Amino acid sequence: MTEGARLLIVEDEAKVARLLKNFLQAQGYKCTLLDRGDLVLDWLKNNHADVMLLDVMLPGMDGMEVCRAVRERSTMPIIMLTARVEEVDQLLGLELGADDYICKPFNLKNVAARVAALLRRIKFEGQSPEVGEPPAQLLENDNRLLLMGRPVELTATEYRILRPLYDHKGRIYTRSQLLDLAYSDYRAVTERSIDTHIKSIRKKIASVVPELELIHSIYAMGYKWED
Fold it and tell me: Does 171 lie in the same domain as 108?
């Protein structure tokens, strides 16, 4: 599905750029590296990329400016790479037209998963998923759930609740078990807190794919995950 897709990687840290290029090429992508923001628009005049991975801090022209300029000319998907973990920067990047963001230091497998998910979303938006393709993916060490290739933001607690349910699909977890997994510091919370978080997660899922039911309530027992 993603084999042969062209990626433009704009990253001025040589080691990071090299790691990204080598890993993504091993996944079957064709990669081009640029190390300055002010080179991007000229490159795009004569070249094509299916997805651009764009660092925020760049010489010549910063990533936010590049994102804005590219979005005025193109609908090419853009993934921002940033060491800024503040929510305001992440939201600003998305409001400028970025499709996704990844915070450094990142897991290369997660980067590849994000790229693949974005390509699937663009290619199959409005269509049914392929036979055998899971409708949801909970990425490792990343507070995000991918639904039909579309990212859903989770809080850290929501992620800790979903992780065991997702990893052991079909297994029933009691509220007490989920409480222990979600709150390792033994703060003063009740089992009803789990219900509140589950309700929030379901609402987020429904906002993206209304007909998709992943978390099932088991009467008098708890919850389980079923695709």
Answer: no
